[in-house]
């Protein structure tokens, strides 16, 4: 994201701010100097370019192997920061002492620009108020109610892929192809967007059928265009945001003439326009517009309806404002389609790489179909959940994909007060001492490396970098570290974060992934292409697949897709 606040406020002011900040942080930095870490590239950049311009996890894995699961690195102007991938430390930050850890205020301004003042942006008591209102919309029953929507959308997607593979039925002059190269993100993103539009608004986006749909165009390659491949100047700007007070960052994000920020603002305007057309406000009370702004009748079961009903049951002091309500929809739209679509794309990529895994999974799925899974009525949600939960290899594949390819690869935190972070494995200090806890000053900026934790060899074993779904079928449940602390919401993974800021929609996301993988692997066979073998895991707020040397084409993961043979 090419953000240039230091250019706009002037080099002299930035230099002055940097000098003041450098002086004020000297004590804090010296108190962390005993923690080992990589050599700084320069005083101006620190190690920031290595983190922001490499592929997801590249430096995390290298530094973790060299310095341990808690290490020190340099931000611009010499500031010491920490990178953490130790499970006990993560448990402490997200669970044991979670109220002491907050998002850096400048990071919150990025989320406010992208999503508005919703739950992703909210902090402390505001976050608790948001979460209390939103919780009823994300229960088990709500997740199950979406199964017919998942299946209907998958049916449309598989029909389109089958037509592409079979060729034009009216074309009698050419033999239909036996397979086609299909760019997975292009299609799965659209399918996922259709699902989240219906689930969030009760609104038919039609992205699978209409390539020019307003919301579909708004979201296509949004994070890549806004955040990917930052220039050197952009990297420095991001690293310097902490020099400015949050109010100044907010002003710049709202007014700076920048292509990446303009892209984010445009998406936000489109989503808010759709949401506003679906909501009316009378006498200070939110209510559904039953005409849906001319876009169909309100069904009453979508997230917006559930939120409005939940909000109405709260007292005035605990209700969400109209702006906050609309921001929740923006948040759900973003989090509910981009991350799920990327995870499914990476799952099919791994199955294409490992044909024996694909065959084993297809055999398990077809055995379930032979036992009657295909005969389950779409409205019998409980029966469908029992089917997908009873497939150990399918769930092992999903867990392994989420472990190897965490779409949310970094989470930033800082303590409100001085704290002591415990470690599950001691680290060696620069003086050669072994320590099992680290004292950190208030305000220390921390990158919790989800990518690093998910490849931590002490946790997952010496083959932590290997795609091996079978690890989840072992008695250890994938974990190799005895007594490893429990972290995250699911399978000791941090895919859905942890603690009171964890992903509220994780059950919905998991059920959607299970259903997609079940149907797609049953019907299609996936193989690698030369382009797929040059996959690049691009950091752009969330991780996106790209092809090395073709970054101008946006998200890409082209696989050879054919109809899966049947006996």
TrEMBL record:
Its cofactor is heme. The keyword Transcription does not apply. One of its GO terms (molecular function) is iron ion binding. Signal peptide: none annotated. It comes from Gloeophyllum trabeum (strain ATCC 11539 / FP-39264 / Madison 617). Keywords: Heme, Iron, Metal-binding, Monooxygenase, Oxidoreductase. Pathway: Secondary metabolite biosynthesis. Heme binds at residue 503. This is Cytochrome P450. SUPFAM superfamilies: Cytochrome P450. The keyword Metal-binding applies. Transmembrane segments: none annotated.
């Amino acid at each position: 994201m090419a953000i240039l606040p230091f250019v706009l406020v002037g080099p002299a002011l930035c230099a002055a701010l940097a000098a003041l900040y450098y002086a004020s942080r000297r004590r804090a930095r010296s108190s962390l100097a005993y923690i080992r870490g990589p050599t700084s590239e320069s005083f101006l950049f620190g190690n920031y370019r290595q983190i922001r311009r490499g592929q997801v996890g590249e430096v995390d894995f290298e530094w973790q192997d060299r310095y341990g699961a808690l290490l020190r690195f340099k931000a611009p102007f010499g500031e010491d920061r920490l990178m953490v991938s130790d499970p006990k430390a993560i448990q402490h930050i997200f669970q044991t002492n979670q109220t002491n850890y907050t998002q850096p205020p400048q990071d919150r301004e990025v989320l406010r620009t992208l999503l508005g003042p919703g739950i992703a942006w909210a902090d402390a008591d505001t976050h608790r108020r948001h979460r209390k209102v939103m919780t009823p919309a994300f229960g088990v029953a709500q997740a199950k109610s979406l199964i017919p929507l998942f299946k209907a959308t998958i049916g449309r997607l598989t029909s389109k892929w089958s037509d592409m593979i079979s060729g034009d039925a009216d074309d009698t002059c050419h033999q239909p192809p036996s397979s086609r190269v299909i760019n997975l993100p292009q299609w799965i993103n659209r399918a996922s967007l259709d699902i989240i539009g219906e689930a969030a608004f009760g609104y038919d986006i039609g992205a699978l059928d209409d390539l020019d749909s307003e919301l579909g165009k708004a979201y296509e390659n949004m994070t890549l265009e806004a955040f990917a491949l930052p220039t050197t100047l952009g990297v420095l700007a991001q690293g310097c945001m902490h020099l400015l007070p949050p109010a100044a960052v907010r002003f710049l994000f709202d007014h700076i003439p920048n292509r990446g920020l303009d892209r984010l603002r445009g998406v936000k305007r489109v989503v808010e326009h759709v949401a506003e057309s679906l909501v009316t406000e009378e006498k200070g009370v939110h209510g559904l517009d039953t005409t849906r702004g001319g876009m169909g009748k309100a069904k009453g079961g979508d997230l917006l309806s559930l939120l409005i009903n939940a909000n109405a049951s709260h007292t005035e002091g605990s209700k969400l404002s109209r702006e906050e309500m609309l921001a929740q929809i923006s948040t759900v739209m973003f989090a509910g389609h981009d991350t799920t679509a990327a995870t499914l794309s990476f799952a099919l990529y791994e199955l294409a790489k490992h044909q024996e895994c694909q065959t084993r999974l297809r055999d398990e799925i077809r055995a379930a179909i032979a036992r009657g899974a295909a005969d389950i009525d779409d409205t019998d949600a409980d029966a469908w959940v029992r089917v997908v939960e009873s497939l150990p290899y399918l769930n092992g594949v999903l867990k392994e994909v989420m472990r190897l390819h965490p779409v949310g690869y970094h989470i930033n935190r800082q303590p409100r007060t001085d704290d002591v972070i415990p470690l599950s494995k001691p680290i060696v200090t620069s003086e050669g001492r072994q320590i099992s806890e680290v004292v950190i000053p208030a305000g220390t900026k921390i990158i919790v490396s989800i990518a690093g934790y998910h490849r931590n060899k002490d946790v997952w074993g010496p083959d932590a970098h290997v795609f091996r779904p079978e690890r989840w079928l072992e008695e250890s449940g994938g974990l190799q570290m005895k007594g490893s602390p429990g972290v995250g919401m699911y399978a000791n993974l941090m895919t859905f974060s942890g603690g009171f800021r964890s992903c509220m929609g994780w059950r919905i996301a998991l059920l959607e992934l299970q259903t997609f993988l079940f149907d797609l692997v049953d019907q299609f066979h996936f193989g690698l292409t030369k382009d797929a073998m040059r996959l690049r895991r691009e950091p752009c707020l969330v991780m996106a697949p790209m092809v090395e040397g073709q970054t101008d084409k946006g998200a890409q993961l082209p696989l050879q897709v054919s109809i899966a043979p049947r006996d």
